[in-house]
Each structure stands twice: as C-alpha cells, then as structure tokens.
Backbone:
C-alpha cells in the first residue's frame, strides 16, 4: 500500500502480525507547546505499518491480495473476504467459488466478466443484476431471471434470447448451440 520512498516503516504481513516487535517502544509523551499534527506525524513515521491490510492466513495462501481476509488460494484480489479459488477479482464478499475478472459481487458462483451481482450463478458478461439470477450471458440489469442471453432490463423472466424475446427451452438451446460460447473471439464480438 505504501510507495517505496514513503517516510514510514513498513512491515510485511507476517512480520507485522508477529510478536517480534514491541508497540510500546514507539510511545512518546505529548508536548502541549508543539502542534498536535506535527507530533502525530512523528509518531506515524516511527510506528510500523502493515504493507498489506490482510489476515495472516490470507498472506500465506493468497499472494498479491490487499484489504482482504478469510481467503484461500486467491490471486490479485482487493477488498474481498470469504473467497476461495478466485483469480483477478475485486470487491467480493461471502462468495463461493469460480469467479474471474469480476467486481462488486456478493454470494455468487461461476461468474466471468461480471459486476454488481448478488446471489447469482453462472454468468458471463453481466452487469448490474440483482438476486435470483441463474445462467445468464451477456445481459444487463436483470432481477430474478433464469436462462437469458443478450437481454436487458428484465424482471422475473425465464428463457429469453436476444433483445428479450421469450423462447421455449428447446428453442433457447437451439439458438445457443449456433453460437460458440467457448470462444473468446465470439465473446469479444
């Protein structure tokens, strides 16, 4: 969190959480004849700061994370907790597993390139959706919807395809079969 040239003493997470340093050795008396913030700055420069705001267990199993806790096997997370097996995700809370390149998600599973999601399962390229979402792709602003592709601004809908057309389950599966959903080029297009 601190630049290499910062005027502070910065410890790695294991060192900061350890009992190897004594916080009382940095104490100083308050001088009423000097400005408070001048003295506070002196104290801040003496007392060690944690280089990363993470739990010690997170530092052991989840490298390159910050402002996070209760992590297991995560990578490049920020502002997250209770996550497991998450690469490159930010601001996630009480999540289950398999989230990639997503942000601001809560209690979700199997997401890719998604943000602002709550209690969602299996989504790709989805933004600003509420709870109760299951198997959505390339959609936005949905609430309590299931099996939707390229749809937007829907509430309590099932099986929609491209521009909110309602389809039968069989027709929906036929339409999706025409598209190579596993291809990144197709996804980008």
Residues:
């Amino acid at each position: 969190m601190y630049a290499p040239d910062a005027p502070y003493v910065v410890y790695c997470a294991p060192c900061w959480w350890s009992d190897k340093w004594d916080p009382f050795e940095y104490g100083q008396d308050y001088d009423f004849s000097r400005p408070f913030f001048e003295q506070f700055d002196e104290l801040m420069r003496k007392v060690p700061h944690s280089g990363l705001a993470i739990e010690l267990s997170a530092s052991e199993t989840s490298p390159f994370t910050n402002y996070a806790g209760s992590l297991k096997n995560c990578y490049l997370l920020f502002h997250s907790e209770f996550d497991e097996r998450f690469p490159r995700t930010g601001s996630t809370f009480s999540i289950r597993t398999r989230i990639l390149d997503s942000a601001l998600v809560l209690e979700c599973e199997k997401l890719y390139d998604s943000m602002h999601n709550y209690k969602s399962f299996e989504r790709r390229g989805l933004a600003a959706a509420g709870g109760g979402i299951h198997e959505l792709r390339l959609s936005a602003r949905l609430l309590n919807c299931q099996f939707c592709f390229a749809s937007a601004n829907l509430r309590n809908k099932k099986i929609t395809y491209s521009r909110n057309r309602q389809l039968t389950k069989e027709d929906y599966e036929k339409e999706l079969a025409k598209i190579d959903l596993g291809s990144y080029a197709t996804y980008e297009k």
